Amino acid sequence: LRAAPGDAAFTVACDMPFLTPEVARLVIDRAALADVVLPTSSGGRLETLHACYAKSCLGPMESKLRQGQLRIAGFFDEVRVLAIPEDEVAHFCDPEIIFMNVNTPEELARARELLAALEVP
After folding, report:
1. Contacts of the segment 21-26: beta carbons below 8 A, 24+ positions apart
2. How many domains does the chain have?
């Protein structure tokens, strides 16, 4: 985050291959509204690795790390957080697909099936 050239950085998890440009834009377009802007998925789960973090988060992040608190959301109570409701994400694609993790051979096989089903001939 410190090395980001702008005032904020958009983070993307490498194990979530179905992020769409539209969902990224949904988050990025609201970056100026809060210190952390992130979508939510089923059950209101915060998608912390599909989020925009302002440089103003650095102090609270570093403070929590020095205290041994390693959860990414551990500093959220010290900054302004804007959670984008799941239904807004659903306008673009099923949130269960967009935020799907691919960490095991079984999940990779499922992702390949979904990709084949999503492709238009």
Report:
1. 22/92, 22/93, 23/50, 23/89, 23/92, 23/93, 23/98, 24/50, 26/84, 26/88, 26/89, 26/92
2. 1
